[in-house]
Amino acid sequence: MVGVTDLLYISILDFYPKSYFYDLGILLFLIGMWGLTVKRHHILSNLISIEIMLLGVNICFVISSIYINDIAGQVFVLYIMLVSAAETVTGLALAILLYKTKGTIMTFNQLS
Fold first, then answer.
1. What is the pLDDT of residue 95?
2. Residues with Cβ within 8 Å of residue 77, at least 6 apart in sequence
3. What CATH architecture is 16-102?
4. Reported pTM
């Protein structure tokens, strides 16, 4: 018979292998890389692409940290999140400055 306290220890990591989570992290990183290299017209899309890349890296760090039973990966994820928040604030400040000076947030002129 399963008690309530036994249900607290059930995790999603018990049902799926770690390769699924690594694949998710790599997929998110590649989506962010694609957005950064192909969709380069708006400064906001560049910022979102960088955030998606960092999210993929964070997922890989957390899964590695859980599976090797070491907290260093999770501490490193907190550091990455701190740097990511500072990068977002700086990027949005640059976007506001770009909009005030040029009247648009386009980073490249379109050829159409």
1. 86
2. 58, 61, 62, 65
3. Orthogonal Bundle (1.10)
4. 0.79
